[in-house]
User: What shape does this take?
Amino acid sequence: MWVELLCGLVIFKLVKRFFYNDDLIDIETSDFNIKFHVANRLEKLYGGKVHLGLRIPDADSGSRQNIDMVLVTKKEAVVVNVWNFSGFLSVDKDGNWVIVDEKKGKTVKHHNPVVEAKKQVEILESYLEQRGVALPEGYLSAKVVLPNPKSRTIVPVNFPPEVITYDEWTQLKPEPKALFSGWIKDTFTGGKKEMQEGIHKQLRSVLGSVPMWDRLELKENKYLLGEFLQFKGKDDDISALRNIKRSKVSRLEMQRSTMFGLGHSKLQVLYFARDYRNEGTSASDFKEVTVRSSTEVLFQPYNSSKVRKFKLSSIISLSLSA
Assistant: This one.
């Protein structure tokens, strides 16, 4: 009996893997997950708004500059780059970061991420000026966060103040209501005065409308940033989803599923109309469509050349950039 059960389990997994092509089996989302973790913690610590996965047009290169996130509070705006490396870190004579990856067993050299982050600040400042946002001098700065507990330094490294090591990251405390503690003052805010309300509102509005990566939220607390390509499935399901276009829809949410025979199920999908007056979603204006839960979403993570396929039943939500 146990042998039969074991054989049946093996066959089920093989069928699921090769015929259903569910990428949740082997997808690696750790880099994206850590970015969402950092963004959520920053909002809790400083009470601001984090704009995640920005793609800022760069006039010099004619392309778009990826920015992990921008934290906006009433006191400042901070470009935050997240380095989720695992291994030993050293800095060579040219200022490059050299990482010995324990997991992959190889050494990788990177350009100084602080220099890259400061370059992103310049690009963002230029873009904001083009959009009519003139920030007070010094209110836009850069930080590089190392949130991985497995990150180590081979020799003592005198990081510049823009780098937040893992130990420093774990010691951050929530912002006091009236005064900043010395630790937080030195780390993120620099004791800055509150930004004028009009400039702060204008900055939030512009950042809420900049090009961004699409966001896919999966079950088991997994996230992906990248580009939604299309739906794939039965003709009647694709026809039912024909009105879901990024020019009209900002977000999809997967609701409860129902059985409709032969072990198949259908899934209710809510899709929210895009509201260009706000930050992309109108909570009161949504429509509902019911399709097979096996209908797939084709999605390409921005750090990968491979197109991924996900069943709607494995997805919690999908946010689309304008």
